[in-house]
Amino acid sequence: MSYFPAVNHISYEGAKSDNPYAFKFYNPDEIVSGKTMAEHLRFSIAYWHTFTEALSDPFGAGTAIRPWNAYTGMDLAKARVEAAFEFFEKINVPYFCFHDVDIAPEGSSLKETYANLDVIVAMIKDYMKDRNTKLLWNTANNFTHPRFVGGAASSNEADVFAYSAAKVKKGLEIGKELGAENYVFWGGREGYESLLNTDLKLEMDNLGRFFHMAVDYAKEIGFDGQFLIEPKPKEPTTHQYDFDVATGYAFLQHYGLQDSFKFNIEANHATLAGHTFEHELRYARIHHMLGSVDANQGDPLLGWDTDEFPTDLYSTTLAMYEILQNGGLGRGGLNFDAKVRRGSFEADDLFFAHIAGMDSFAIGLKVAQQLIDDRVLEKFVDSRYQSYKEGIGREIVLGNTDFHQLEAHALSLGEIKTRSGRVERIKAIINQYLLNAFA
Ligand code: XLS
Ligand code: CA
Ligand code: CA
Asked: Per-residue DSSP letters for 31-83?
């Protein structure tokens, strides 16, 4: 049986195509600087948005029309696996990601939940055997059920801490079973609503303990996926402990976890934290902590996590610039943690949305590679920091100066000359590259 009978394999038709079921810019086999587009971009589909999301919002019921919704319970879970693998193949995306609760319904006990998971994991494993689909990462949903009202590893209830540990333990076993390339920890409710009733130190220490136990268990079972922390500043809690990359990095260093983790950076979480997407990528990159990316975008007019499909070419270009400068994403990928809008409720919209996101990142990749090849930004940055390549600047960078010497230098100066930052000129050049990339 087919869940998307009207849709064939999506292929590349070029920029002039008006076929809605074709890529206009994403050409998986096209070589960009020695690697195919597919190798650079490592796209992934988020199971929760594409196969379980009902498209509800706080004021309205779900609108999604999905062919698998004819089923319930474990039958629904199985139908979703069938639909998912049909979709992966048709859209030509090599990876997917899921939370435990996305793939199998929770049972009335943890044991029953495990049993449900075992059935579906075996089915997924079977599907993966003779297909090219791989698991980018899996994770535990330790935030939806009411037991997680006060958090998971940072809950005030020790029983919830234990329950959360059991779910992550199972998640690591599933990750190993399915050959996951990474394992993600998104804070969920690891944060607080009010400091008035919160033991901040105990909660953060417990989170540190929890991560150490996860690292130990992965070693114990020989799970070699990369551990990723996914920062988010707020939502659902008022303050989340993994606020942004800088905060998360300080946390990892404080608890001696920096060598066991990297970051999974989501665009919409970056902007929620008051940063740009590229800021978070850069911050992680320069500290060698860039692991993977949740590719989406927020709505600048709304203050929450709208998880839209990425279509802003300026943003995909600057993101790909960071990723290329990082030497790629290694075991990570570009996971579309993105959902179609509530008004885009037909199953076809799932194809259109992924095509839009994949084409947008393909453009970003090509433009970013050309900017790098031509050293466009490097030239501006090099000349802007020229003063550190000679004279007193060079001594500063080499660590050869002290306040006495710097004061003597300052006293010897006349009027200090500064240089223009040229931001408008740079933006105009980026626009030229964007428009000329496919000309
Ligand atoms: C929620 C997060 C979540 C993580 C995985 O905002 O983006 O979906 O990616 O738990
Ligand atoms: Ca995410
Ligand atoms: Ca999100």
From this structure: EETTEEHHHHH-EEEEHIIIII----BTTB------GGGG--HHHHHHHHHHH
Mean of per-residue pLDDT scores for the chain: 98
Active site (annotated) includes residue 409: no
C-alpha atoms less than 13 angstroms from C-alpha of 51 in its C-beta half-sphere = 28
160 CB near ligand 1 (under 6 Å): no
> 31 φ, ψ to 5°?
-85, 125
Residue 338 vs residues 45, 311, 405, 408: alpha-carbon distances, Å? 9, 11, 54, 56
CA distance 152 to 54: 25
Q: Is the pLDDT of residue 157 over 90?
A: yes
Ligand 1 site, residue 230, Cβ cutoff 6 A: yes
Q: Does 242 contact ligand 1 (Cβ within 6 A)?
A: no
Length reported for the chain: 439
- Model pLDDT, residue 170: 99
How confident is the model over 40-60, as a mean pLDDT? 98
Amino acid occupying residue 305: D
Q: What is the per-residue pLDDT across 78-89, written as a single tens digit (0 to 9) for each?
A: 999 999 999 999
Instruction: Give the tokens for residue 386.
Output: 């020229």
φ/ψ bin of 306: left (φ > 0), alpha (ψ from -120 to 50), beta (otherwise): alpha
For residues 132 and 10, give the distance between their C-alpha atoms in angstroms, rounded to a whole number: 16
Cis peptide before 236 (omega within 30 of 0): yes
Tell how far the Cα of 184 is from the centroid of ligand 2, in angstroms.
Answer: 9
Any idea which ligand is nearest the CA of 171? Answer: 1
Q: What is the amino acid identity at position 266?
A: E
Say whether 102 is catalytic: yes
- CB 398: neighbour CB atoms within 10 A? 9
The helix (H) or strand (E) run that includes residue 137 is strand 134-139
